[in-house]
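Why does residue order matter? Because the sequence determines the fold. Keep that principle in mind as you read this record.
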Amino acid sequence: MAAAIAWFQHTGATLYYGDAEAHLNIARRIIDSRTPGWYQFGTTWLPLPHLLMIPFVRNDELWRTGLAGAIPAGTAMALGGGFLFAAVQRIFRSTLAAITALAVFLLNPNALYLGSIPMSEPFFYAALFALLYFTVRFAETNGWGALAGAGLAACAGTLSRYEGWFLLPFAAGFIFFAARNKKTARVLIFCVLAGSGPLLWLAHQRYYYGDPLYFYRGLYSASAIQGAKTYPGLHNWEQAIQYFFTAGRLVVGWPAVVVGAAGLAVSFSRRAVWPILLLALPPLFFIWSMHSASTPIFVPVLWPFSWYNTRYGLALLPLAALGAGSLARFGKGAAASVAFICLAIFLVHPAEHSVTWQESDVNSRARREWTQEAADWLRSRSKPTDTYLTSFNDITGIYRTLGIPLRRTLTGDNEADWYGAALRPDLFLHTDWAVVQGGDDAQGVVDRAGRRGPRFDLAQRIVVKGAPVLEIYRRNYDHSVP
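Structure:
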């Protein structure tokens, strides 16, 4: 993972994904903001990835380069690989199976990319594979340590991605049936440990936003972002399945899908039922989300022939890795052949199947262009002590690029400071600059200030095809508004 992190850092792709930029900056604003603290974890994205990035984002250089998010993500992916190896070895009683499953998963270039950048997927896969290992171990030993490990792994999953919530009732049911004595007590302990994650997040939503389900139906939820717009798969199971499995074929590679399916058929025994079911739950979650929860997946080979959430197809990879591992039990030759078949397509057609990198590259070109142009313009015209009225969104990448502490920015996440400046800019707006985009909330504050003061003059307009216009305003200290 260290080599992958270094490679993507060298190529500049660490922060191509807008989500990667956002995860990194959320972690930074928790400790570096006009109003730092727990509130800055926000509303929609779960907190564990950001919490684990905090020790690294304290370092300005690691934050500026994105390594502050890549290092914990890569560590989580490596840890997940270790749990996958241990789980498959225990399931099939075969080190060859474990090595093959690990190779199919971790050498997939799409998994390598997502595991080397500040995304939430690496943390979820670490939790998922830990849950797999500890539940398989619990079925064999009925030990309290395995039970606690399963509960803590499930909790970590629920604090990383929402598909982790979907796993809980199934995992609790498995604990009940696998327990040979004290079933109620064991299930209760698991539920307390695993359920503490969702309960914490619901409490966070209720305390700060007045609604425990604000992440689901609030301003920044998937349903609010999608709005009334329709998409393939919405309330259509056939299309949802088609689009998800198309994304999976692109991300995982069709040879791995075929080999994995064959391996799962061969390995379908009493010992393998639970691992197959557990690893099938995330794909089912995404299909369900497409159908019912305003979560589209767009792939370049199906209408509308674009990239959006294509990376969700990676959810098929753990199943493919498990299936490949089951076929590798028959000897070294079988293991080498299985691994080669699953991975060769990425060597033969690397550009076509480096889907996660392509998705991030295509969707970030405009953002990267205006971010760099704005940073270059401000670098020669602003002072290190200058302050900025702005929005906490993609624009934050400008300040990260320049190494400007976020406490020098005023955004809607600063609550009282923001509302004071928004309602009475003549009294409470004291920033030197305003950086706004596409008529956002900061633009409204600038317009209001134009009527009551202070005055901001348009200093630069940046127009990039495919992106909202970015405007940079400089405060005019020589003129007052009558």
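The chain has a mean pLDDT of 95.
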